[in-house]
Amino acid sequence: MIGRALGSAIKVVLDRIHGEVMGRSTTAAVAVLKSLFEITVAGDRRERTRGPLSSLWDMPFEQVEPARSFPSFKGQKNFTGLWWSASTGTHVGYESWVERDVAMMLDFRPDVVAFSSQPFWLHWPGEKRERRHAPDFFARLSDGSGLVVDVRPDDRIRPEDAESFEATARACAEVGWRYQRTGGPSPVVRANVRWLSGYRHSRCFHASIAEALVGVFRDGRPLFAGAEAVGDRLAVLPVLFHLMWRQELVADLDAAVLSPGTMVRVAKGVR
Q1: What 8-state DSSP symbol labels residue 45?
Q2: Average pLDDT in the chain
Q3: Which residues of 112-132 are buried (b: 16+ CB within 10 A; e: fewer)?
Q4: So what's the pLDDT on residue 264?
Q5: Nearest CA to 265 among 251, 245, 247, 246?
Q6: How far apart are CA 232 and CA 156, in angstroms?
Q7: Can you tell me the distance from the alpha carbon of 190 to that of 197, in angstroms, rounded to the nearest whole number?
Q8: Is the model's pLDDT at 106 over the cut of 70?
Q9: pLDDT per position as a tens digit, 111-137
Q10: I want to staple 83 with a disulfide (CB 3.0 to 4.6 A). Which of 45, 103, 143, 147 is the partner?
Q11: CB 86 within 8 A of CB 72
């Protein structure tokens, strides 16, 4: 059955995931009892909660407000904005075009249920003073685990940045989260997913056309040829690209920029 859980179904999934997290072995919690890490989380009405990582690690960070603001001012070199997430139907902030691309890739990942930006401040003792760092994104994965992402290209990492990333990786390991530092997707992947993201909204879905496309691309076919086999390209292509965004139809997005001859096929598990 073609489709992706939306609206209230997302809340059901998140509630189930958090139930699984809380019901797991307490090994992770015990492991961080001696941790020196603390976090600060922003709540409703800008209220802030600070406490030990051992006490707050199981919060739904994918739903929290940003721990810090996204300033916008005349002459700034970075570009801030909001990414509309097809995964949750909410907006997620970013502070640069690279962060926008990473937000886009998180939204594109089928194992990401929901994600947020600047989810918390992480605090730890430094040699001379307390250090703190706000990771760029937190994603809740479909298996209930967490993924923390920092966005920084290799050539822009200063020694103090490297220390912050290392500390964040240690904190994530203590509570069983995954940690990733990325400079963003490759140019080809970015171009392809950026194109598909223009069709991420459910308004691009048409059930009968989608069903026909799945039948046509079952054994693989060039993109335009498959679309024309279903009907008028102007009507069919938006649905085709929407199914590719949902990864029910797939292609090699790393090899080259999408073209009429790109081979498209039905993803495994799609009927």
Answers
A1: G
A2: 88
A3: bbbbbbbbbbbbbeeeeeeeb
A4: 98
A5: 251
A6: 47
A7: 10
A8: yes
A9: 999 999 999 999 999 888 999 999 999
A10: 103
A11: no
